[in-house]
Amino acid sequence: MSAIIHIDQLGKTYSSGHTALSDISLDIQEGEIFALLGPNGAGKTTLISIVCGIVNPGSGRVLVGGHDIVRDYRASRGLIGLVPQELVNDVFETVWATVSFSRGLFGKKPNPAYIEQLLKELSLWDKRDAKLIELSGGMKRRVMIAKALSHEPRVLFLDEPTAGVDVELRRDMWAMVRRLRERGVTVILTTHYIEEAEEMADRIGIIRKGELILVEDKAVLMQRLGRKELILHLKEPLSALPDSLVPFRLERIEEGHGLRYPFDSQDEDSGIPRLLTALAAAGIELRDLKSKESSLEDIFVSLLKEGV
Questions:
Q1: To 10 degrees, what angle do helices 137-149 and 95-105 make?
Q2: What number does CATH give the domain 1-79+153-224?
Q3: What pTM value is reported for the model?
């Protein structure tokens, strides 16, 4: 894959003195789903807004499809579709008119067949003649997505696309994202629903205080930073750990009714057989045990606390 978006030493400091972005360098590959994660105020929306030509960069360079976003604004912007956080629509226009008009803004010739297909994919076809003011919030969000895709962009930005929407729309949206990737469209998303990034993304980027602290393939990240732990539920609670169990780094949980044992799933010697033998020798009987693996959310929270 080649980079559809190239960001080189991008910085942005506002007139108030607030530095929103500091020395961001990133390549996003054509056809991938890239999830940008970070807390509120980390710089996610500023970064997206600069790439989309809404906010001027302070320093550095951004190329979209080989076009400089400043010198070749029209060419670069024509490759991008953006679904912003806020719902912004002409409320007295019909669904069909607003999506068709958005296509025309990018200089695209009318294509009723494509607009029809788009509205059907987003379950908007039955609402094509309805005015936007008549639609629910979820339907208005669907219209925003249709507008972003109306000119057949090669890159789609989804800025918190599922915030406050129903489960059905969320499911439809991710089905569409998968279809877009199959057609070679690059998708960049920010989301507070980290389980969505864990399910959908090929790569993860984490931004904190305007700095990109990590970019990694999702599978590699989960393997490198993910942890496993064994949760042991006891028949009788322990008030303290016997000396023979201290080397296993066990943690008492549930007021002594359980024990937590962290281990490295990549290590051939997890220590679990020795632990079970030691528990039996100490006369500790188990009621149940289960293993638990770190989620992307666990890793995300840990990275924000500790840095990389």
A1: 30
A2: 3.40.50.300
A3: 0.74
